[in-house]
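Input record (one chain):
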Amino acid sequence: MLENSYVRVLFVEIPPHESTLLHHHDLPYISIPPGGADAIPAPQTAGAQPPMPRVGYAAGGFSHAVNNPGERPIRNIAVELLRPQGKLRNRCQEVLRGQASDTCEPMNLDIVRFYKLPAFETDELLVEGWLVGANVYSKSMKFSHDMLVAGPIGVKISAGPGMNSDTSPHGILWIPAHTKMTFQTDSDRGGRFYSITFKDSGSAKQ
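The corresponding structure, as predicted from the sequence alone:
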């Protein structure tokens, strides 16, 4: 779906009762549940915030085949990391077993409107989950590093003309450093998305 000097992004779908071929992963990669029309519907309580799904991290250097024994397709955004990652650290999510994680309590979206939780990080990047309340239109924001956003549910992300999650393939957007970004929700349930920030990207403040 997208490739640059930092990532190679793949959309993966395995139909029900099918399996991939045995294949090898040379590179570390992050797994993000897709958003939009690609998301697998989950039961919702009326007025409830969509749950924040877990992201995954694999260090690479292994072979496997993935089987789908279920009745629904398995869909995934696989973000292959093209640069050495260094040390992996848990934040609000345990991706490295036996290592302590941050204590991260959910916030009241009726009060704060939106917030983000750091899932995990490496020396090279930081993965964060953004949760957004209902009927939110954010102010324009700029970030000092390059960022990949993926997995939007119930939220539209815009980063300038022709760059929005509704029209980008599978809701994936590469947002260069110092680019203005906004997001908005229309539904009563609000929404969520993930961001991956690349720490050694960007330049001096512009």
